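From the pipeline queue, job 12 of 40. The input is one protein chain; the requested action is below.

Action: predict structure.
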Amino acid sequence: MKLLRITLLLAISGFSLSACDTFQPSQLCGGETEADHQAFTNTFSEMQLVNQAITGEGENGGQTGRVFEQPVSLIIDLTSLEEVEMRLCIFEAKRNGEIVFDEDFSISAGQESFDLGDFGEGSHIIRVYVDGKLVENISFLIQ
């Protein structure tokens, strides 16, 4: 009887550990989670997330990031200090962690805007990569 309990406990533990492997935010959009902020400041003088549907930057939601009300049509406005290859990868921070946007851009020095489209309700994270290196994590919430 004791052996059966131990076997069941080990089987359940193994199942719950393997279930944890199905969604690990650190694996989304690449393995890095810590942004290189020095690389960001060397590349950009400005970057902001804007809701062009109502022309606004959203409210500051603390750890949640910017909070936007529906309708939402987001753009990233930025000023680049140099010509670089940039990747924007956006995933849901909760639920199943689905990647909802993943595109590469060649950007020139100067001001640029990139249309990200509209998003459903929930928390999202934008990972900004420059020349393959994670330089910024931007969190936002759609209500």
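Job complete. The longest strand covers residues 133-142.
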